[in-house]
Amino acid sequence: MKKSVGAEKKRVKRSSGSASTSVRDSGSDAQPRKAVKKDTFQLFAEKVRDHKGLESRWAVMEQARVEYFRGKDFVSFMKNNPDLKEILEEDKDLDTDDIANVLLGKNLLVRCDRVTKTLRPGKKKLSTWPAHLEIFRDDQSFSENDAFFAWTFEKRHPLWQTLLSFFWPVLTLAICLFPVYPHRCKLIVLYSCAGILLMILSLLFVRAVVFGAMWILLGKRVWVFPNILAEEATLKELFRFWPKKDEEEPPKWTSRLFYTAVAIVAVMLLRHHAPDEAARARYQRRMSNIIDDVLEWSPKLALSGLMENQQPVNITDAANNSSDAAGPDQTEDADLDETQGEEEADGWTDPDLKP
């Protein structure tokens, strides 16, 4: 009986110990799960920033480039995309102003203001998207009336940018190995690059001509493909053809007349100093020779050229070089010795001097 009672006590202790360890394990598992759970407002901010519906721009704020948006655009964006609030889970019923204030409180956003607050000469209102900003230190609360908000966290890079970062070294190596390409590959690369460069220059020239003609004739500032030279733009924005409405003040007729005269004089000078047919043919021949030299070069030709340019070693030339290296004094002494030897030989052969 005593043994059975002792065994039951041991079993109770073991069961209680195993239960306590299981509780500890469950508690230790629950803590990491809570720690791993990401902030819903952080997820919401990343989702909103990656969304194309919220219009944003890049600017310089305290010597750093930041991406910012306007308060009124954020309000309209949330009205058009109410499903994004589902990311907030328990806080999905908050208003737009409250959500923005929470983002400001978590330092995911910062309210900023334009640096230049005065009108420039010839303009009726301030720039819609200023290029230089500063932190608005008076009040860090949300407002949709002429208020700007910049993202403070680093944006995640998409997969194509990561792949592009690995592709650039390969492209650099391929450019360095261009001289050893086969002739056909060189032709393909040359004409492809020349065609792309010609297309870019032609597009920029057409943009300038259209802008000048519209500005002189109608007083309108029209840039076709307005974002073609933008630093930060998506593919859709980059190849947008028609610009937005011109909000600036139309130019004066005196300035339009002046630039019309300048354009006419420039065209007449270019036409007067244009190269003739012979000069054009000469330039074309010269460029063709340069291109042929680049395309036809190969390491074999370079090595064969080096071997052909090496002169064979000649013993006579080596002796002459050694005599030249002896110096002018030693050369003069040798010439005097030869002259005295010749005079003595002539003296012995003279019949008057014979005994």
TrEMBL record:
Belongs to the SEC62 family. It is found in: Endoplasmic reticulum membrane. It holds the Pfam family Sec62. It is a multi-pass membrane protein. InterPro entries: Sec62. The chain crosses the membrane at residues 159-181, 188-217. This is Translocation protein SEC62. Residues 15-29, 315-324 have a biased composition (Polar residues). Residues 330-349 have a biased composition (Acidic residues). Residues 1-35, 315-355 are annotated as: Disordered. Keywords: Endoplasmic reticulum, Membrane, Protein transport, Translocation, Transmembrane, Transmembrane helix, Transport.
